Automatic annotation (TrEMBL):
GO terms for molecular function: 4-amino-4-deoxychorismate lyase activity; branched-chain-amino-acid transaminase activity. One of its GO terms (biological process) is amino acid biosynthetic process. The lineage of its organism: Bacteria, Pseudomonadati, Pseudomonadota, Gammaproteobacteria, SAR86 cluster. This is Aminodeoxychorismate lyase. SUPFAM superfamilies: D-aminoacid aminotransferase-like PLP-dependent enzymes.
Length: 278
């Protein structure tokens, strides 16, 4: 399958099957890298500029050099050369290839870039998610989109055997986010979401949904919320570039009834699909 997947490494386009990456990459040795996942539908990127701006933010926070015009040219070239109509491009920038494995990196190191394109059904049909509540064991700069995702991986896999699709993470009871998404919930016909912090990724779909909510004058509040707040929720939603807006059907840790077909949810899902398709 990989021989048919379009990819680019260090500016050279090839099939993913032919890409060769150095084992001395700091992405490989230290997870010293940042990335973006940019979806497209009908061969049109969904909010590409916002994803690129977040990549710039991540690069500024970890001081990885980045040529954003080169990144832009490469992702658009990958899309143009592909026959895939719906999918996403994964694009990663590492600090570079360093022959000396050291926590102190060479200040003159050149960045290493890699991207590839994958098909994905973007009809956002995956609903009725089963989730579990987990402690947030990640580092303290989750606002940076780095490839260091071991905390997410550990917690999501710890509950996958129980049939869970996602997790709801918290720090001492304070809601943060999902393992690969942001969280919204509805209580008494009002939409809530945790406010951004260093423990929460500024999700692109999260921002789009908030824009939709405000444009349509829907009751809404950002703030600090706790696991106990979910006990009174009528519905809980996850947002991400690949999920869209997905509803939770069941939390295995809480004995509560959730409505994955709530009218407010359906309204937001419909408005979201209209916005990303326009």
């Amino acid at each position: 399958m990989t021989k048919d997947i379009k990819a680019v490494y260090q500016g050279a386009f090839n099939s993913l099957n032919n890409i060769k990456v150095s084992p001395l990459s700091r992405a490989y040795l230290f997870a010293d890298s940042i990335y973006e996942v940019i979806p497209f539908q009908n061969k049109k990127f969904i909010y590409a500029q916002e994803h690129l701006e977040r990549l710039i933010y991540s690069s500024s926070q970890v001081k990885i050099k980045i040529d954003i015009e080169r990144v832009k040219n490469e992702i658009f070239h990958l899309l143009e050369e592909s026959d895939i109509q719906n999918g996403y491009i994964y694009y990663q920038v590492s600090r570079g290839i360093d022959i000396t494995r050291s926590h102190i990196y060479d200040q003159n190191i050149s960045p290493e870039t890699f991207g590839y394109l994958m098909p994905l059904d973007l009809d956002f049909k995956k609903q009725d998610l089963t989730v579990s509540i987990c402690a947030d064991i990640r580092w303290s700069r989750c606002d940076i989109k780095t490839t260091s995702l071991l905390g997410n991986v550990i917690q999501m896999n710890s509950v996958s055997e129980e049939g869970c699709d996602e997790i709801i993470m918290h720090r001492d009871g304070l809601l943060t986010e999902g393992g690969a998404s942001n969280i919204f919930f509805v209580k008494e016909e009002k939409i809530f979401t945790p406010q951004l912090s260093s423990n929460i990724l500024p999700g692109i779909t999260r921002a789009i949904l908030i824009e939709i909510i405000k444009e349509n004058n829907l009751p809404f509040e950002e703030g600090e919320f706790y696991i106990d707040d979910l006990k009174e929720a009528s519905s809980i939603w996850f947002t991400s570039s690949t999920k869209g807006i997905a509803a939770v059907k069941r939390i295995i840790d809480l004995d509560i009834e959730l409505n994955p077909h709530e009218a407010l949810l359906k309204k937001c899902q419909s408005l979201y699909k209209e916005k990303v398709s326009s």
